[in-house]
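[User]
Protein folding is very new to me. Any chance you could explain this protein sequence and its structure tokens? I have pasted everything here:
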Amino acid sequence: MLGALAISFILTGGALIATLAIGVVITYPNIAIIPILISTVGTTLIVGVFGYPISYTTWLAIDLIMRPLDAAEQANLVKKP
């Protein structure tokens, strides 16, 4: 669970920084604080909520690559008639 949380945190933080940087670059001479704030909060909420299931699945795949199943665990996965 901690790995999935870390992946989600990195993904959400990256989206937050990217949205903030794009907003500042686009409105540079007169930086529009309120529209940038609204867009960064919205992006953070959307990426945080919808990105967590993706990060959880990604972490499970990474965990399975790092710790493959042994023979006993694979035998338990096979359905027996």
About this structure: The CA atoms of residues 4 and 59 lie 5 Å apart. The chain has three helices and no strands. The mean pLDDT is 90. The two ends are 34 Å apart (CA to CA).
